[in-house]
Amino acid sequence: MEQQNYQYQDNTVFVQEGTVSKKFFANVFLWMFVALAISTLAAYFINSSSEARSYLINDGARTTLGTVAMFAPLALVLLMGAGFNRLSFGALLGVFILFSVLLGISLSYILYIYNESSVVGCFAAATGIFGIMAVLGYTTDVDLSKFGPILMVGLVGLIIASVVNWFLQSAQFDYIMSFFGVALFTALTAYDVQKIKRIGLGIEANGDQIVAADSQKLAIMSALTLYLDFLNIFLFLLRIFGGRK
């Protein structure tokens, strides 16, 4: 995904925003909320139907189909990123909606193992954290792009540590990583929101050179980025504070 082609190139963040830029930013959050709603409904449906849940969970463990559902969203994220330039807006949107559904199906597992009060509490906390950092990223006059390499190193380190702990199965290590994960994705939220704002400014400045479909696709991919930031904050909070059934 070549978002950098449409980024505002000035070193400052605060420039006069026009209607196009504001509309782009609003569309990003609209698609994010659509994805969140679809995932929530899918998770609720699976969890409320014992028959549907039995296809994914058997005797407290994931079935083969449940394991496929767990990894399918990741495959779709990679597909969207790799196929950004080749996929039409309709195709990209279709994959995005499919991702939201499959992610909701995968997340239904947390409703099976965690108390509803814990899920609701951590969801509310994640919403608050995400909202505060989104506002900060949108309004700050500090150029957050300089923190990008540090955040990317942190993300890679978290992924590697998670893979290692997959084999170690250390509860203490997992607990420590969860705090780091919350901090990392909290910072990434502000960073990504500012980056998306700059993309909108770039579209505003170069509107005559940008196809409408490309702008729409950028909104979808930006929504995906923010959705993943929010989701990771929520999941890491749940791993720290969630009460199991």
In brief, what are we looking at here?
The chain has 245 residues and is an all-alpha fold. The protein is built from 8 helices and 2 strands, in the order H-H-E-E-H-H-H-H-H-H.
Describe what you observe in this structure.
The protein is mainly alpha-helical and 245 residues long. The chain has one domain. Helix content is 77%, strand content 2%. The chain has a two-stranded antiparallel ribbon with strand order 1-2. The termini are far apart. The N terminus is likely disordered.
Mean pLDDT across every amino acid position = 87
- Percent range for helical residues? over 70%
SS elements, strand count: 2
**What's the N-to-C terminus distance?**
41 Å
Task: Write a concise keyword list for the protein shown above.
245 residues, mainly alpha
Layout of secondary structure:
Blueprint: H1 19-48, H2 50-54, E1 57-58, E2 61-62, H3 64-82, H4 89-113, H5 116-139, H6 148-168, H7 171-205, H8 212-241
Antiparallel strand pairs: 1-2
